[in-house]
Amino acid sequence: MGNRKEEFEKFESLPEERQDAIVEAAVEMFGRFDYKSASTEEIARKAGISKGLLFFYFKNKKELYLYLMEHLMEKVSDLVVDDGFYEIDDFFELLIYAAETKRKVFSRFPYLLEFSVRAFYPEHKDIKDTMDSWTQRQIDLMFSTYFRCVRFDRFRDDIDPKYVLDLLIWLADGYLHQQRALHQRLDMDAMLDEMYRWCAMLKAYSYKEEYL
């Protein structure tokens, strides 16, 4: 997505409280509405600035959206990957630890969960290709970076840990599709309960007996 520091230098030179006001307003709009329906005029109004000033910091709606996505995922990652993160060497325990930390993060930022899910299922042509490729890069990065201290020797010899991660992502994808089809508002607690069940099943399937 380019060098954000250079592209958004004007925005990031603002006082932190002004940056936060704009980010929170944009997250709410993109969380409550799809990309096409999210109003930049309403974002500016909620942030207490003019629409013209919003587009002084971000050239257009797409640029604002992509900045938000990268900025927020970095922020969440910084909060999740804390002092205790790399002390965990079990694949499934690490996933659960990260999920519990994300639960706390999402509870502090209204509409962040909805925004994240909409970003995971981009529909508008302006952002779909960019977000689809970005999401895949994040999955690859997660495995190579965040799992570097995991003991993969606990897995059976015929099991590929990356495939197990893919299975969890596919399960989550199916769950989210179902909830969206039912027009249900996402419940983080219910979603994590399902994830813990999937982790227990996949651990029983993929670990060597002595590690169960």
Automatic annotation (TrEMBL):
Residues 16-76 form the HTH tetR-type domain. Keywords: DNA-binding. GO terms for molecular function: DNA-binding transcription factor activity; transcription cis-regulatory region binding. InterPro entries: Homeodomain-like_sf, HTH-type_TetR-like_transc_reg, HTH_TetR, Tet_transcr_reg_TetR-rel_C_sf. It holds the Pfam family TetR_N. SUPFAM superfamilies: Homeodomain-like, Tetracyclin repressor-like, C-terminal domain. Residues 39-58 bind DNA. The keyword DNA-binding applies. This is TetR/AcrR family transcriptional regulator. It comes from Enteroscipio rubneri.
